[in-house]
Amino acid sequence: MVKHFTNVYLIAAFATIGGFIQGFDITSMSGIIGTKPYRRYFNDPGAVEQGGITASMAGGSLLGSIFSTFLSDRYGRRDTLFSACLFWIVGSALMSASQDVAMLIVSRVINGIAVGMLTSQGPTYIAEISPVHIRGRLICIQQWMITWGELIMYFIQYGCSFIPTNTAFRAPWGIQMFPAIILLLAVPFMPRSPRWLASKDRWEEAIDVLASLHAKGDRLDPLVVAEVNEIRERITLEAKYSATSWTELFNRRNIVRTHCAIFAHLWSQFSGVNAMIYYIVYIFQMAGLSENSSLTAASIQYALNVVMTVPPLLFADRWSRRWTMMLGSLTMAFWLFTEGSLMAVYGHHVPHLNGNKTLTWVVDNSKASKAIIASSYLFVCCYAMTWGPMGWIYPPEVVPLYIRSKAVSLATAVNWGGNFALTFFTPPGFKNIQWKVYFIFGTICMTALIHVFFLFQETRGRTLEEMDEVFNQSIWAFKVQYVMLINEGKAATIEAEIVEGAQPKL
Known about the structure:
Blueprint: H1 8-15, H2 17-26, H3 36-41, H4 47-75, H5 77-96, H6 101-129, H7 135-160, H8 167-175, H9 178-186, H10 194-199, H11 203-214, H12 222-241, H13 255-269, H14 273-278, H15 280-286, H16 291-307, H17 310-315, H18 321-346, E1 347-349, E2 361-363, H19 366-385, H20 387-398, H21 401-432, H22 436-455, H23 467-473, H24 485-499
Antiparallel strand pairs: 1-2
């Protein structure tokens, strides 16, 4: 029997390689679409065609996130990650060998399936192995790895952009398979989710995993005993429902929780961040930068994304989830409205920009151009500190175990559905309504702020099983009293048993 890793930080680091792969996915086109070898080889794709090429991976991710729930419920979170790596390696090989647009799209769909599986099951797996006091930090590693993936892939593409041959795009697409190979080799040494083991009535294994991860192997540690009892009570209660179908996500017990998980991803996507990432070169060219200058300026934005994800990585478990999301919505809306206004006032229409028919708006004023670029940087900084990590932390925390895999998969599918819509329609948006795109995203951010205030319950500091009590208090998040009835009751019981010399029961 293979001995598994016991350090939760190490396990989370390997599990979030899926986030690193997603970062590669996000920037797999951004540094390439403006290069001459790519445009020449694929016959200079128009706005709709380029939108379809870029969005094909998001479409595959939507399918992969739904498909992953069947694998995850039956074979476990860990084995689903293993399967996703195989999809990614095959897709990357085909992508680097693409002969035409059709082959490129098919390969990106296959890669997208892998990313959908990784992004739906990776955060769920981390949430289910993490101690409550560092759960937010560990899931936040997912977003940090995404930013590293974006930065590294962008610089790979930037370096290859100086190659005059087709290697300029084939080399980056081939290199991206290596993180999946690393994760593939690490998966056998990662423990299975203790909550998944418990749901399969494999209690001895579940207790062993919890003890090794949270108490250095001590099965009688009070924290392990409390956690096992909570999981047991929750599974017993859920067994009474005898419902495992998809409709269970939308019944009276779960619909509010399911909808919060879905909208955490939806608001994160429709903040406009991926339009800023996928098409950052287009945006900076509209701001008046040349092709080479826009590539350099874009690299700064990717670096800022990495750096500004560090604060939530360190302090996510000290920050209120809901107030972080609301503050993020407000500040991102401000910078989006600022950027749109600057483009509207100082820009003008052109038939095309540098031969690119997708770009029909340009800003010639140098001061306005710098302000637009600065606003873009600040927008990404705000996202990196708020919705970036919270969009991944929140969904696994709000849904019960027996529907967690389905709910998180559905939420991730909605995430990728939103991603598909954005990446497909952003190029036509830039072509037809130009600066108004920013106003649309800004309005969506303000809507998200209102929604979070009313319906998103606080999850910080609560066990995954404890969220039932929170949602039972009220559907209105601003009314819920921050009490820990379940934790306090269980802690008192265990403490009394220890004081009286009784053996805590598993």
